[in-house]
Amino acid sequence: MSKIIAPVIVSFFVVARVGDALSASAASSKSQQQQPPPPSPPPILLVERMTAKEYQDRRRQPGGPLALDRPILILNALSIETCEGICHELLQIVGEEMITVQRQKNNETFLYDCTVAQSLDLMMQSSPDDSIFAFCEGLLDASLLEVIKTNKKNASAAAAAALSNISQTLTDAKEALFREHDTEDWLNYFPRSVKPSDCVVVAGEGATSTLHRDPLEWTGTSICLEGRKIWRFLAPPNGGSDTSQWDNILQSYRLESTAWSTESENKEEEDTIISAGWQSDLSLFSPSSDAKLHTAMGLNDLLEQDAEDYLEKVASATEYLTPHKGIQPRIVMGVDVCSVVQHAGELLLIPPYWYHQTYAPEPSLAVASQRCGSALDVPRVLSHVLSLQPDIDELPVELIGVLDGTIDSKNLDPKTVVDMLFQIVKQSVEITWSK
Ligand SMILES: O=C(O)CCC(=O)C(=O)O
Ligand SMILES: [Fe+2]
């Protein structure tokens, strides 16, 4: 890490000395009052909170932001009643499905298989010393219903309708933000076996997600259905796509997240990787001995406003939950790092390139999702897939045009281009295997 920090510090002093030398003679003849003003501090980084309408209005303005250049929290994306209804119905429909939970105890993680209903019991019993976290993919997938129906003969048409309603409600809350400005979600045209799916996130008190940035470099979304979650984000330098500084500081490694269908009859396809996130083993949330955290129960006993103030403080100050020592020298709270407390019904937009991590001050249930629909999303996601293919022969002009920005993805048929993409992936595998 010192490799990265050192040149910055050195160059600061070098510039200062050169500046001194250049101004030495002028300084002798000018009065001291004409010293240049000190450089203004970098702007404080905040997660803005706004309604869906405010977000849409902002994008409607001429030159309205195309890039999601920082996380944004959308207020009241779903009503509390809707969130409660979804949690209740979800438990009824998928409560008996098996999932894998991580038990986080003494800085170690253990994996257990249990049902969704059992995971919610464990979530309620969690404590900061012994907590559970689960990232459950596929629970909201319509195809799961087919499985449930075959396993449980009495699975009713009503359950099928309820699951598809839940899915639709969550999709609508997300799509309402983008529909007017962006194309439909190109991920919908990904082959079923590699299409990213919505993910139910179960977090017991004290649990943390990993510190990571998402695969495929999509626009991420997370809607909280129950409880509150604390998020911290690391801004890529200058708001850009150069993530190498953080990648190095965090010692992140690639985590291949999606392989081609493992049910494939074709061994070659099984080994195809189409996406990989970036994960770090460091944490932004190590409990500190300096300030004692409230338990979830204690939080519940506080007056509503006091609890909110306390959570804001825990999220934005480092004395309760401290970033790993290896990260601290680089972190300036408010400049490199921003944080937000997410409540039930609030939808968070997570830009690509931003490392993020969550902490659960109380039990929570959320749904993580993703989107690829803007003129910026599409080239980023497609080039992510291509970057992982070892042998690419030649790209069709449409793909070249999307990637180099000469063709606006709005003018293309998503299905045709996505089919082309996966044709290239297939050819790459064949080339590799024939060598
Ligand atoms: O909900 C969480 O705890 C983490 C989810 C996440 O990383 C995401 O939505 O990208
Ligand atoms: Fe994530």
Detailed description of the structure:
This protein is of the alpha+beta class and about 425 residues long. The chain has a single domain (about 50-375, about 380-385), classed as Jelly Rolls, CATH 2.60.120.650. The chain has 13 helices and 17 strands. The protein has a nine-stranded mixed sheet with strand order 1-2-15-8-17-6-5-3-4. The protein has a three-stranded antiparallel sheet with strand order 7-11-10, with helices on one face. It has a three-stranded antiparallel sheet with strand order 14-9-16, covered by helices on one side. Helix 2 links the parallel strand 1 and strand 2 (about 70-75). Helix 3 (about 80-95) crosses helix 6 and helix 11 (about 375-385) crosses helix 12. The chain is globular, with a radius of gyration of 24 Å. Residues about 1-30 have low confidence and may be disordered. Bound molecules: 2-oxoglutaric acid (AKG) and fe (ii) ion. 2-oxoglutaric acid (AKG) binds near residues 214, 222, 350, 356 and 358. 2-oxoglutaric acid binds near residues 356 and 358.
